[in-house]
Amino acid sequence: MPYVNHYSFHIWDTEWGHITIKMSGHPPFGAQIILNGHDYLSCAAKQAGLTVTKQANCFVQTSDAAGLTKIADTLSEPETEGRLRELCDRWIYSSCLIFGLDLEEQQRSGFQYRYSTYQLEYCRNFYFSSGRKMWEILQRLVDRTRSRLDLKVVKTIFGFKNRPRVKRLKQNKWGVEVETPTYDLTVFHVHYGKLSLKIYSKGEFILRIEVMVHNASDTPFRRSLVDFPKLVSWAKDVLERFLDALQCVDVCFISDEAMETLPEPSTVGKTRVGGIDLNRPRMRLVVRTILSLSTSPTGFSAREVSRKVRSLGGLPEDEYGCRQAAYDLKKLRGKEWIRRKGNSRRYEAVAEGLRSMAALIVLRDDVIKPLLAAQGRLKPGRRPTQTAPIDAHYAALRSQMRKLFLDLGIAA
Question: The organism sits in which domain of life (predicted)?
Fold first, then answer.
């Protein structure tokens, strides 16, 4: 089959940044001009006196986020069409076409280009202070959202009133899919013909949501450069409607690092102490002791803790004394669950640590253990005529857990 050579010209413009012009080596010298919006924002931000840091086509830091957003919104202004036309004319004739037609031949033949929009990408970045929390939110967004994004919802997000034609439905890709190109990357894709939405992580702390126009002919606007500002505004509206359609995750259900770091060693002063393993009966007795002694306004000492632990666990004094209690208290101090009371040898519980200790103990002994005991019997027995209210709550909780597993896609 015949083929045509194309030549790529890489140009750096002081206003728009990196520009790539791909031109055919044969008449009529068709060309494709590729602009990078992040480069444009970077150049415009420097001219406006803003400090920005860009890594891998992504802004990771800026001195004025509101000012950078204001600069980005200028691309949807009507004047952008004239600026883009001026930019293309400035480089394509004098730096690219001149290798096929010199300036004299261009003027004599009246050769001119007409510009149109073919592809467009519009994105919004969300910066997280913790990469682990960003990963957890991404996974939960995917689980909560993909089941409810049917064709009707996707059609509304892109601003269309009618369903696509059956012929086009067969030719193009429609629907929602989750891709994992690598083990640490999840890409959530929503396809609507030659338009798509994408959610993925960009680096360790940035979550990017992106609108991709693979062919501008599938948008409500013409491909003429005059409609470029309208196309940018439309892409922004699509992204905001997509954000509204995402299922939110309540902040209280986003776990911190307490559970993961609990068994890991910690440091108290210059001393390295072991982690906390609540699977050990001794550590559970210590936590229960701290919960019972935390109401004392004067705090508690290692001797009082050892005495209470022996009382709760029925342990002899030679098995758990003040030395063992002091070491366990130091481990709790390493997790910042308790602290010294002034310069004395007495301790007091920290409010955040008190909540964590109470939640871990109560959930383990009073919620998880009864549910596991009930789950061991596949066929429950006959329900007694008289039951305590707490047993009714356990039965309802078991039933709701089954429904939760169904929504999560877990066999129960």
Answer: Bacteria
